[in-house]
Amino acid sequence: MGLLVKGSLAGSALLGLGMLGRYISFQSEQSPPSQYDLGLATDYPVGSRTQNPQSQSIIIHVSQGYRAISLICPHLGCTVSVTNDGFACPCHGSRFLPDGSLRNGPASRPLTALRIEVNADGHLILYMN
Amino acid sequence: MYRHFFIASFILFMASGLVFWQQNRSPKPVGITPTITGQVEYCLTCHADLPEISQSHPVETFGCVLCHGGEPLALTADLAHSTLRGGANPSDLSVVEASCGGEMCHSGTPQVNRDHIQRVTTSLQATYAGAVAQVRYAFSAEPDLTARMGIYAIDGLAAFDPTAESSPALQAFGSNCLSCHLSAQPLEAEEYNRWSGCSACHSPAPREDGTLVHKLTTSMPYTQCNACHNRGNYSLSDMQFHPREDAPTDRLHDFYQPIAEFTRCEWTLDCEDCHTRQEAMGDGHIYSSKKDIQYVRCRTCHGTLDSLPLTYTITDENDLALRLDFLNPVVDLKLGDTILMTDKGEPLWNIRVIPGEEGTVPTYELFSKATGERFTFKPVMGSTCQQKPDQQEARYCHECHATQR
């Protein structure tokens, strides 16, 4: 009888710990990072236009340096597609020129330019805010 | 004593096991953080199998709660659905402003063509003001046919209250004849099946087996309209709705109830190929009769013996025609295309002059908004049509061009 009592109590404790562990280990939605390490800057040769899905942006290396443009449409936040002549939003038809400037609405602003720098290690760092 | 301990501990063990089992059965929360709201919501924990409602409303951008309401963090159905707007239909007119409204969405300004809700809520299809005016006038409750009442009070219209009417006929009208405005629940039969509000037109009706179709579209076949239209007739003599009694088996006979003969385009095309956004959704003004808002005529597309139909060439990237074609790309319109236009300047964006065939008497191509099927036609000008300039109503065209049913 004593063994049965201890066994029941031990079982209950284990189950309780299991539920507590599940509760504690729950991963809520994490905030998106404020910056991304895009790797070596040399991986982005002059003239390249490289999409980065994690940051939803495109990295452009022009002769004057690096530029980053957000691929989030400034109209309502859909992700624009890269086209032969710039960018197009699949949601409501806004279109942008290759430099991110607005070609036609319903968006009323260009694509957001993001800050991008080469750090001391030669890595491209993209800042989201 | 030990026995009591055992029973208590055993009950505790079983209870713990039951709770642990139930927790394991619960679905793992699936969260998304829509771009517009930035707030996590767990609707996809249970509804991940729902198809995207439309290309213009992707769930990654809009989420679910923005339109539907509900409790975004709840993981049980009862709690999650406890604050839904409009039940399964957030576009019901009672909640449409909260669900579909907003300056950037569907209750913005006319200048940017975002005033959908303002137009629809004052339209005849929503207010039923024309029917109310005509019936009240017929039974001497009003001095003329001017609309003074609607299904609900809006913009100068009072709310029609059948219980406040002294005429039994008007009371019967209120009981029997108000099943086809946008706020009304449809009659119970498959042929009348539809949603209310915006979804009455823009969403497929629930299926026969009761399953719902999660879809918003601007591509609407005539059958969508025929949930209300061409279903039968309201009789003033007995104030009842009399359903059509025929049993059509083809499109020609199904499109309209057997009250008249119609030209080929009237039953080959779909309603939205001719009837414009203003005609269907209103223009923001209160009207007393559909004759005051319906203005598309045969000559809108076909012209007259003396004049070609109105057209304009698209030169602005922000032209409404391009936007409408984007939402329902049956034409692939581009800058430089010449399309038809109504008397009020509404673009008939699915009808354009065939490039290279402009000439003195051009040829036009029409693309069905419901199917994308292409039709070509010539205008009246240059033909042997016998029409008279002052006889431009459809009935005159029907005299020669109606298809015998």
Describe the protein.
The complex is a heterodimer of chains A (129) and B (405). Chain A has 129 residues and is α+β, with helices and mostly antiparallel strands. Chain A has two domains: 1-30, no CATH class; 35-127, Rieske Iron-sulfur Protein. Chain A has one helix and ten strands. Chain A has one helix spanning 2-25; strands at residues 35-40, 49-52, 57-62, 65-70, 81-83, 86-88, 95-96, 102-104, 113-118, 123-127. In chain A, the strands form two sheets. Chain A has a six-stranded antiparallel beta sheet with strand order 1-10-9-4-3-2, with no helix packed on it. Chain A has a four-stranded antiparallel beta sheet with strand order 5-6-7-8, with no helix packed on it. The termini of chain A are far apart. In chain A, 25% of the residues are buried. The mean pLDDT of chain A is 91. With 405 residues, chain B is of the alpha+beta class. Chain B has three domains: 2-84, no CATH class; 119-281, no CATH class; 290-403, no CATH class. Chain B has helices at residues 2-25, 44-47, 59-62, 65-68, 77-80, 96-100, 116-121, 124-127, 129-138, 168-176, 199-202, 222-225, 251-255, 264-268, 271-274, 277-281, 290-293, 298-302, 320-327, 394-401, and strands at 149-150, 158-159, 232-235, 240-243, 262-263, 311-313, 338-341, 347-353, 364-367, 374-377, 402-403. In chain B, strands 6-7-8-9-10 form a five-stranded antiparallel beta sheet. Chain B has a two-stranded parallel sheet with strand order 1-2. In chain B, strand 9 and strand 10 form a beta hairpin. The longest helix of chain B has 24 residues, at 2-25. The radius of gyration of chain B is 26 Å and the shape is globular. Chain B starts with a helix and ends with a strand. The chains are: A alpha+beta (129), B alpha+beta (405). At the A-B interface, helix 1 of A face helix 1, helix 3 and helix 19 of B.
